Amino acid sequence: MRKPVMAANWKMHKTVSQAADFTRDFVNRLDEIKNQDCEVIICPPFIALSTLAELLEGSNVYLGAQNMHWEDEGAYTGEISPGMLSQVGCRCVILGHSERRQYFQEKDEDVNRKVLTAFRYNLTPIVCVGEVLEERKAKNTEQVIRRQVEKGLGGLTAAQVHELVVAYEPVWAIGTGHTSSPEDAQQVNTFIRKVLEEMFGKNAAGAVRIQYGGSVKPGNAADLMSQQDIDGALVGGASLDAASFASIVEAAG
Questions:
Q1: Of 66, 72, 65, 60, the residue nearest 23 (C-alpha)
Q2: Taking all residues of the chain, what is their mean pLDDT, rounded to a whole number?
Q3: Which residue has the higher pLDDT, 4 or 171?
Q4: How far apart are CA 253 and CA 234, in angstroms?
Q5: What are phi and psi for residue 134, nearest 5 degrees?
Q6: Residues acting as catalytic residues
Q7: Contact 127/208 with Cβ under 8 angstroms?
Q8: Counting runs of H as helices and runs of E as strands, what totals does the chain give?
Q9: Long-range pairs, 199-203, Cβ under 8 A, ≥24
């Protein structure tokens, strides 16, 4: 049985003090949720990582980062290294988010280098894949997803894949208010698992947790989480409010 993983991606939101206030509130709300049986992760901006690491210590909430460089260190102004994330207390890192691909021209090969490096530092990669609206309209969703999975995860071992998290985020649904239907999201997640099985075998593919992301809200989370191959959510805007994100976590059951 795969344990659901619910992750908050705050993107470029919240100052350090705002992040701290949210975290105190959210942790208190989690304590009130009964039958919570999922993994919860908060991925704040880099400047809030140290503060949240202290506040989350001893809680059931893990700390994650939104991105990292693939090199151990070097002359990469404005970047952050995997060792920095590991030392500050991060357990995981979001890689290949569509906004990184769109605005910063990240390629599948870049994502792959980051994924391989993350495992060297015992950081669990949350690898994002998803199609844009034009690709969906052209019925190229599976072609795009296959390319992103095969190129982004190339070179991994089956043992590493067991620990991997994949997030299916249809780009047309991110921050737009439009959500993939639970049935459509399930269909794509099933396809992702099929590609993983072709690459790494049935056991590894069956162990991978595949999230859905794209305008997840308290009102649709339960329906999405009821699908067999949706193992959690990568939540953007709705994770910026403690009550909202707590409700989404509760929907994971």
A1: 60
A2: 95
A3: 4
A4: 16
A5: -60, -40
A6: 97, 169
A7: no
A8: 12, 8
A9: 199/149, 199/150, 199/153, 199/161, 200/156, 200/157, 200/158, 200/161, 201/158, 203/158, 203/162
Q: What is the pTM of this model?
A: 0.96
92 phi and psi, to 5 degrees? -150, 170
Structure tokens at 211: 């999230």
DSSP helix/strand/coil, 176: coil
pLDDT of residue 174: 76
> pLDDT digits over 59-75, tens only?
999 999 999 999 999 99
Per-residue DSSP letter, 70: S
Helices 108-120 and 141-152, packing angle to 10 deg: 40
- Both tokens of 131, joined, read 């199609």
Burial class (CB in 10 A: 0-12, 13-18, 19+), 58: exposed
pLDDT of residue 35 exceeding 80: no
Which CATH code fits 5-251? 3.20.20.70
Any idea what DSSP says for residue 205? Answer: H
**The predicted structure's pLDDT at residue 188:** 97
